[in-house]
Amino acid sequence: MSTPLPLDGIRIIDFTQVMMGPVATQTLADFGADVIKIERPQGDLSRTSFPDPAGPLGPVFCSLNRNKRSVVLDLRKPEERQVVLDLVRTADVVVNNFRAGVMERLGFGWEDLSKVNPRIIYAVGTGFGLEGPYAHKGGQDVLAQAMSGVMHRRSNTDQPLYVHATTFADYSAGMHLVQGILLAILQRQKTGRGQRIAVSLLDSMLAAQTQEGAAHLMRGKEINWGAMPLSGVFETSDGALVMVGAFKADPLGDISTALEIDHLGRDPRFTSFEDQVANKPALQAIFRERFKSNTTAYWLARLEAQDLLCAPVRSLAEALEDEQARINEMILEGPGEIEPMRLVGSPIHMSDAKVTLRIPPARLGKHTEEVKAELTRGLAAE
Question: Which Gene3D superfamilies match (predicted)?
Fold first, then answer.
């Protein structure tokens, strides 16, 4: 007999689309929740956001929608709206990531659905919050980067402002949404009541800067971990590496040994940490010259011999092909609707709850009749 997954028996009605919401509900689905994805007749926007030979089952959609059932409902029709209410009566959690007020206008707000099912957990992900001057502003990852201060903070203020290529805000807010849902499930075991949970892209980005934020709030000072004088990204003769000169008694001495040069700490420009900060351009110019003189592999071996933190700068393709990714089971493979699936796996590894591809990313509406039939049987039994 197989071990039950942690969320077996938990039903989630999922109105989310694009990334923040779907990455949250996929995490819950991976660990056993019955996630019923409610899609409009046109489908989740991520089915068509990037043209792909597989059409609405391209990699962008598949990456966030495994282990879910797809149900298409036209919420303009009363009979389809009734299906939603019937589903809510059977569910534990309802999740959406619409702008504030959208679900309320549909008649599916927290107040509406808690009357239908007092045990329902109502989880909302927005761009900027449920109230306030930005509540009705469209939320998106890049906007959250800009408005939270993340985009403004760079390792080198001489760099132009830029958009981070990875959707940090969407992913982190999705993980906060998962945390809120799990906490609410635990609290419901004590109280018997559901509750509303709200997270936002803006709040997640502010929370990610918790150390920097506290330094500003309490001391009026800025902390910039990327601007430390003994850390940085350095080109080599055949690539690039990163070095972090920290957590050592004499990091500059160890770096000097690794770089095969005299101890730079004897140079009056670099004697103290304050001197190193003040003369960072000159110090890092020495680092750049030395690193450029040999290969990435050579310098990594030298740095690691001094127990200095370092790593090669890799492309995503190289990272996915690394043996460590395979050992960590970060490539999830299995059959799909029209082609084999090769997806990024879950970063959560549990000895008694292995993540598998139980339900391939579904074609639009594949499970509509199946779910409606379950509801009919359930109502008949009642």
Answer: Crotonobetainyl-coa:carnitine coa-transferase, domain 1, formyl-coa transferase, domain 3
